[in-house]
Amino acid sequence: MTEKLYNTDSHMHTFTAQVLSCGMEGEHFGLVLDRTAFFPEGGGQCADTGVLICPDGAQVQVLDVQEKDGRIVHVTDQAVESGTAVEGQPDWAQRFSNMQQHTGEHIVSGLVHAAYGYDNVGFHLGREIVTMDFNGAIPAEDVPELERRANAVVFANLPVQVTYPSPEELKTLEYRSKLELKDNVRIVTIPGVDVCACCAPHVSYTGEIGLIKIVHLQKYKGGVRMTIRCGNRALADYQTKQDNIAAISKALSARQEETAAAVERQKAELAAMEGKMCGHSGRTDHAAGRDNPGYREQHLSGGGGYGCQSHAHPGQSADGEGRPGGRRVCRQ
Fold first, then answer.
1. pLDDT tens digits, one per residue of 72-122
2. Are the CB atoms for 120 and 176 separated by under 8 Å?
3. For labelling, which of 98, 169, 276, 288 has a CA lying 20 to 30 Å from the CA of 269?
4. Which residues pair with 328 in a beta bridge?
5. How far is CA 71 from CA 35, 80, 85, 272, in A?
């Protein structure tokens, strides 16, 4: 059985191990090591990736990690002979981001459970997004306060404790879990916030998360699905939205905090202008069309469809735009 180093040190950047076996894994290779810091896909969280460095300096890419029948299989792009000593290097940026997201999820789920009594019945931690499914409704107006409380836990820099209670202790312990667990249960505790059975790596202190942002809430299967971004992902999300709002602000010549109001004014002005132009043009067309065979012939022969079409006055191009005297005719 492979020793799970990530259970004892989630911040491990490198480790040494020996290859126990190597076989085919689909189109790739499957390596089993005697010990590993690579977390396998499980509990809703994607697997770690990274490299294994061989004694001759060759770097073997770890593309995926799966736990199968008690074995942790590292899916690689190259074969490595059994007995070879390797140095493992999980992709630290990816690992740390996953830790930020997962501990952030525990904080939000713990707060939701305490406030509403709802259970987290579905969880997905992918490369870009984190979603949580709760079995009850959460009003949209409650989200800002929930987010404020979640970040208060981050700023408090509380310890994230990992324990393995005995079966007797488990009987008296209140903790969140989607499964009925009995043996070797790993409990992750954030004091005063959450107690949950979990197999994944977490940060050591909540301050490492940096920021928790709830970015979406939707109705889902009688409850709600919540999307969050934490830490570096939250920062990247903020930067993307900052770039977009800056571009909109410039286009509308409005202050960034006033862009929503500026967009609504633009919409109202355009709607009023279109209504005025179409109303005026419609009256003009009906008046002129009755005595204009050419107009009627064009109308009946399919010279245009429903909606606004351009017609030119003498000395004016057919587009009717950007020149004095141009008009838009609303065809009826």
1. 999 999 999 999 999 999 999 999 999 999 999 999 999 999 999 999 999
2. yes
3. 288
4. 310
5. 11, 17, 18, 68
The DSSP 8-state label assigned to residue 301 in this structure reads T
Model confidence pLDDT, tens digit, residues 223-272: 999 999 999 999 999 999 999 989 999 888 889 888 899 898 888 888 88
230-257 as b/e, with b when 16 or more CB fall inside 10 Å? bbbbbeebeeeeeeeeeeebeeeebeee
Give CA angle at 289 (287, 294), nearest 5°: 155
Instruction: Answer for the pair 230, 101: CB distance below 8 angstroms, yes or no.
Output: yes
Q: Kindly report the pTM of this predicted structure.
A: 0.79
CA dist., res. 186 & res. 6, Å (int): 12
* Residues near 5 by beta carbon (within 8 Å), at least 6 away in sequence: 12, 15, 35, 36, 37
Whole-number Å distance between alpha carbons of 271 and 276: 9
Give me the amino acid identity at 151: N
80 close to 62: Cβ distance less than 8 angstroms: no
- H helices of the chain, in order, are 92-116, 143-155, 167-172, 231-252, 259-289, 293-300
Specify the amino acid at residue 137.
A
